[in-house]
Amino acid sequence: MRKILCTPVWLFVVLITHAQVDVSNTVIETNTGLCKPGVSNSAPGKGAAFTYSFNGNYKLRSPETQMSSKVRRDERFDAQLKIPVINSPVFKFLIGLKYTLERYHFDKIIPENYPLFRRLNETDLKNTGIAAYAVCPINEKYYTSFRLSANWQGDYKTFATINNRFAVYRLASVFGIKKSDHLEYGIGLLVNKGFKNNSVVPFGFYNQTFDEHWGLEMTLPTSIKLRYNFSEQSMLLAGTEFSSQTYAMMVYEPTSNPYVVNGVEKAPYHYKRSSLDAVVTFYRQLAGWTWIQVKCGYSFKLKSEARDLPERINYELKSSNNVLGMVSFFIAPPRDYLAR
Fold this sequence. Notes:
Helices cover 6% and strands 63% of the residues. It contains two helices and 17 strands. The N terminus is likely disordered.
């Protein structure tokens, strides 16, 4: 546990010494001929953040038994940073860095020697990522944005890796329409190429501020949230969001086949779980650029599965629903800071 806590804390301390800004908080320099993405009173973007989240007290069943293993909790520590590189009226460019550690804590594994759950219970699952963001206003009404990212997701032993066995590459493009300071919508395309599969997914978004208190923030099909602003310093969002984690793993299990090394098989696995979460999220400005975000909710499991690559077999892992929680401390520069 000390290792889990110290690594992201150290990384976060290093990262926050740099200037930060989120794409949603990136400000187009004063120019009435160009629009800037985002609506009034929306949730603040994270320039630099340190986050702790967990899923608590649920069951996970292997295909080898009708009885379920018990997970006391799985917890995740995230550190992330966005650095502005170019901030001009016609083009904005940012670099993003991310590092995640996730750990499962089982109370009981059934059967006791089930190799995948034993591996989950004893290893750090990591996600090291780098991304490039670009925002390109077209005129006072239309804009485009792009994100190109690479992540390495798995149980590698080093702090980070560029081993392609863990790599996931993504390209997202967005075309946005800014009707007013209170309304924007648009469409986008997400292209995903990774160790588990390749996909092309269209999506849409719609953000509207109705008045000084109420607003709506949607990214379809992954998130729908109603927003209530208590003041400029605090707000509450309630709704649903899609959550998914995927890792490439090396699972060790006794066997007698060509993959045996010193009597133990080194079997590459792909592990994935996904859920639809009903959540309530509270944002509060602490002082200056610093904010706190607290989230709680209930997770409805959609699919948990593992793939044994040497055997070319997919296993469904039946998972129960669970409560979830999250707390995040982050830095969000004011929207007009760069324009002063």
